Amino acid sequence: MKPIHTFQDRLRIAMEIRGVRAVDLARDTGLSKARLSQYTNGVYVPKADAMHKLARVLGVADLWLEGYDVPMERSASTVPNYPDIFPIERRRIPVLGEIACGTPILTDEQHDSFVMSGTNLDADFCLRAKGDSMIGARIQDGDIVFIKKSDMVANGEIAAVVIEDEATLKRVYYYPEKSKLILTPENPKYEPLVFMGPELDEIHILGKAVAFQSEIK
Asked: In the annotation, is 133 catalytic?
């Protein structure tokens, strides 16, 4: 069986359909920008490992991306029939920017990039974690954290919280009778952030963290 389209054509089509920019594809696959530029310009065709990374991030079948006459979507039939393995239906969730797991940082309210997730994930947007203050909750630097919009969360839940114009990810503890809010990290080397009285006017909860996505390294 010979390809009916070039890899370059299929890569361009997939990026357009998924709304993925070259810079996002390079970041999410771990491939260098220079190498990805060579792929998009038709200088090289990726080897099997790089092809699989590209197909996985774009949510397309490996063979389709290689140019063969097969369905574009990744097929459940390619998954072994074991009771604990199941196919994932996918949808795009916008990435708003980075969120600090350490010192709060500015969050970028631009929907310029997206990640693919299972359709059963109840999230409105996601943020890329930066720092190590939430490693006790298994959230590592670079992980994608999925957020469900809400202006309040239960005590002890992890939330994306805006402090003035900056955002951070912490466990939230609120004591209304004391007008006191404590944002607690999951790393003993960081101190909790405590806000009281008028300081609470500068705090806004974006939503509850409902899941995170890590790459196996």
From this structure: yes
